[in-house]
């Protein structure tokens, strides 16, 4: 009779002979990596106790058990394929699609600034609501879209509205719930967006001057055909159409003053750092003088029309009074 220990040993030997262990099993590698303080599975949320702040895996040390910059590269990309660095017809830039209704258009971004859109674009102005499927077309035509979250601060929305109206005809103003409440205000141009936690007039004006009228059809000035929920149509004020030079000329709000001081500082900086190009700085001087003249002209035109309105109203009231008085006399 064999003793139990002997039996166990024989069984173990038999097991070892008939099931030879591979060079290193997964669990052995795991144990090894663990011992090397290099193993950290994404499923294992407990970081290793070590002074290394990156979860126990120090940087810059090549280790075949972790990362040697050679093995398993295909987990991130396939080095055998040229796909990732070849321009194919799929990814080449194509004009965005004009998509007919009732086909839905879905965007991957919460606030898209390019992509497929509807063939009819919105009339410029302020809306109760315009969906991105429409205003993307306005961006393509070089317009600026101003978004605010419906829960945003009413005073700041008013400020955004003033800037929009005073800066360009080709503007769309609409609420949009896809904005985060952390950044409930936005100005959009084709391919560009400015998200703001509060309305900073000088930033908005700079954004408009840099990006308006620049979509790949930025020269298209015709107004749109869509006007569902249009609240206030845009009005041409001093200028027949938007030009680079006319951008933000109608601004009279505080925002404009901020912008003025900003522009002056910027230009001074440029003038002094340039190589003494007096011509360009005098050009700049005259263009800013003509800016001011234009602005004064626009301002007085507006005041005059307001006065005209007031005096027409007064006249109407006087007429009413006279009529009432005559009736009273009879
Ligand atoms: C909101 O964002 C999603 C993507 O996150 C997009 O598909 C959808 O069109 C957006 N809706 C609006 C109203 O902007």
Notes on the protein architecture:
It is elongated, with a radius of gyration of 34 Å. About 14% of the residues have low confidence. The chain is an alpha/beta fold and 330 residues long. The longest helix has 52 residues. The chain starts with a helix and ends with a helix. The protein binds 2-acetamido-2-deoxy-beta-D-glucopyranose. The site of 2-acetamido-2-deoxy-beta-D-glucopyranose (NAG) has 7 residues, from loops. 2-acetamido-2-deoxy-beta-D-glucopyranose binds next to loops.
Adjacency order of strands in the biggest sheet: 5-4-2-3-1-6
Could you state the order of secondary-structure elements as H and E? HHEHEHEEEHEHH
Helix content percent band: 25-40%
**Low-confidence segments:** 17-22, 37-49, 253-279
Tell me about the largest β-sheet: 6 strands, mixed
Counting DSSP H or I runs of 4 or more residues, the number of helices is: 7
Number of strands: 6
CATH topology-level name of the domain at 113-233: Glutaredoxin
**Average residue pLDDT:** 79
Question: In whole angstroms, how far apart are the ends?
Answer: 143 Å
CATH architecture of the domain at 113-233: 3-Layer(aba) Sandwich
CATH class of the domain at 113-233: Alpha Beta
Cα Rg: 34 Å
Structural class estimated from helices and strands: alpha/beta
Organism: Pomacea canaliculata
GO cellular component, one term: cytoplasm
Signal peptide: 1-25
InterPro entries: DUF3105
